[in-house]
Amino acid sequence: MPLTDMQCRTAKPKDKPYKLSDSEGLYLEVLPSGGRYWRLKYRLHGKEKRFAIGVYPKVGLSEARQAKEKIKCELKEGLDPVLARQERKLRAAFEHGQTFKLVALEWHSKGLETWDERYAKTILHRLEKYVFDELGMYPVHLLKPLTVLGCLQKIEKTAPEMARRVKQLISHICRYAIVTGRTETDPTIGLETVLKRYKKGHFASLDIDELPAFIISLHDHKARLYRQTYLAICFLFFTFVRTSELVEAKWAEFDFDQAMWTIPSERMKMRSPHLVPLSRQALDILNELQEMNGKREYVFPSLPRPLKPMSKGAILIALKRMGYSGRMTGHGFRALALGILKEKLGYSHEVADRQLAHAPRSSTDRAYDRAKFLPQRIQMMQDYSDYLDKVYLNALQAQSYHIRTVPIYKDQKNSE
Asked: Are the beta carbons of 235 and 282 closer than 8 angstroms?
């Protein structure tokens, strides 16, 4: 006859353990100490076994019966409930140990096989700076959208675009966790609708008609700037490479005989080697720099740490001193050059764009090799340098400067 809850509550201890049977092998065992335990007797593969369901009254009669039904289902499938429970415990322990940080570092280590060193360092830095303190210790399968959103909103307060980049990182890691069986969902899905909309702006750059005034300002600040910084700005003017490509330039990359600078793929944004034809003006600047820094690895070494390249911020600081903070950046020389090449010198967008090392827009363009339009680009870079010198000369003459030499980079004492 099945047990009642009253019988379970009023069961008194005796000198020896005894059982109060319910049905289908379920019984309540009462110990001399007063403890009452639910047990289930069952047979599997011809052997009689017992399974501990729980302690009464923490596990009530109805809960014990529900557990019995679940165990019966496992038995029908040929599963031993004891082994199944052990497996669940091990699984729970494993899942608890699979923290977001552990999975993220594993994902990062896999990426090292294909990423370049700089990108790998950037990714790890962002995880350590923005994510691990907030989410690192969460078991990845317990990570919820609201938890991730809280982390992203803290980043968003000061860096909206970074919040979106970090969201993408977290998504990549969670998708890796799904594939490797550590979780079932990506908690970042849909969070972009909650984050603030952020429109990325362009780098500050001058209009073409502002060029003469800028050149006058550069001329007037020539003596106030550290000579290497001044030459770096002039070289950036003549080559319009990215600032990072400029400051990390090494002497080994330059072929003076061929008047060519080959920037290796690992330093290029598009991860492809880039050729920069060198005008006569650019070569003259390099010759002066070689006298200054020829024994160094870098063309533009750091002043306090000569074994390291100069800081990208040095260009911005110099432009700020010239009064162009927020109006011109190192990257702005690229936009300025593109405008001059197309509007003033009549070069096609394809030729100018290839010199800027932009990603080709179509699969057909991407099939061309890195030297496409090279003869045109060589002539274009010389025409561009000559144009800058012409603007420089006209701007100085308009300001009543008495000059004997034209090039922008020449020392002031030799140019007035």
From this structure: yes
Is 402 a known active-site residue? no
Task: Tell me, yes or no, if 141 is annotated catalytic.
Answer: no
334 is catalytic: yes
DSSP annotation of 300 reads S
State yes or no: is 269 an active-site residue. yes
Helix, strand or coil, per DSSP, at residue 13: coil
pLDDT digits (tens, 9 = 90+) for 287-306: 999 999 989 999 999 988 98
Angle at 386 between CA 383 and CA 390, to 5 degrees: 135
108, 182, 242, 410: which one is catalytic?
242
Q: What are 247-303's pLDDT values in tens digits?
A: 999 999 999 999 999 998 888 876 678 899 999 999 999 999 999 998 999 999 998
The answer to whether 358 is a known catalytic residue is: yes
Give pTM, 2 decimals.
0.55
Catalytic: which of 9, 88, 125, 269?
A: 269
In the residue annotation, 331 being an active-site residue is answered as yes
All domains in the chain, ordered by first residue: 5-85 (3.30.160.390), 100-193 (1.10.150.130), 208-415 (1.10.443.10)
